[in-house]
Amino acid sequence: MASRLVVAVVIVVVVLGASTGYYVSTLNSGPAGSVTVQVMVTAGLPSNGQPDEFIPRNFTVLECQHVTIVFFNPDDDPHELAIPAFGVDTGVVQSGVTTRVTFIPSQVGVFPYFEPAGVCGNCTEAQETSGNMTVLAS
Fold it and tell me: For the domain 2-136, what is the CATH superfamily, name and number?
């Protein structure tokens, strides 16, 4: 069990480092550009009462910018990511699978993203699989 936790932590560090570097380099490309945001599920530890969570919890994009969310699920259970304000839904993503969704945010504001209820077979109401996408004016 400890080795699974170590692997999950290493994956989180690598994904966050890569996505932050890429995100910072593309954010300044303007509204005609595009940005890729990598989101993953971290496997919670039920024995410690820790829930799964999405990493990063929050991210920022520009209005009218092409946004691609790369969603990776290293957890044993299926997960899904939705941003209802823009009709974004990854669909159910099985363990070890990566999927991509692309959209163009058409309004400025802070929009929640989360896992719809009932997706994860072992999930409870305590899930931390949620965050906010901030859309700035271009």
Answer: Cupredoxins -  blue copper proteins (2.60.40.420)
